């Protein structure tokens, strides 16, 4: 009965996605990743360059407002490729489910096994960094 949980935990350990234990938003999250097109709104007003990987999260993460993760980094792992990236939280999108995220093209290319944006999409495991 514990096999699926054990398998999931083993997959987390293999991908290096460890939960932040000193963040306002502790834990490891599983959701879908899609494309965050830039230039898009930058709700957070953080300065990002052309070589930065940026993320858009669900507006769920704005509650409570004093714990907004604007400018924080997240680590995103795509289990099907085994690749992980670090992204800067720059935006929020009310159309996203709670644990779904969006990454810019550089992030999706980096997650994919073949540097193709579309192949970087899928189910991901992600966490806030310390």
TrEMBL record:
It comes from the Eukaryota. Residues 1-19 form the signal peptide. Keywords: Signal. This is Barwin domain-containing protein. It comes from Botryobasidium botryosum (strain FD-172 SS1).
């Amino acid at each position: 009965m514990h096999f699926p949980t054990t398998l999931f935990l083993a997959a987390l350990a293999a991908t290096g996605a460890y939960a932040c234990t000193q963040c306002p938003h502790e834990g490891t999250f599983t959701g879908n990743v899609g494309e965050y097109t830039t230039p898009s709104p930058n709700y957070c007003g953080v300065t990002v360059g052309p070589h930065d990987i940026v993320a858009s999260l669900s507006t769920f993460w704005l509650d409570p407002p004093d714990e907004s993760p604007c400018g924080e980094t997240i680590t995103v792992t795509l289990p099907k490729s085994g690749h992980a990236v670090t992204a800067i939280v720059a935006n929020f999108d009310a159309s996203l489910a709670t644990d779904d995220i969006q990454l810019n093209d550089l992030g999706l290319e980096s997650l994919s096994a073949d540097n193709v944006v579309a192949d970087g999409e899928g189910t991901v495991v992600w966490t806030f960094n310390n």
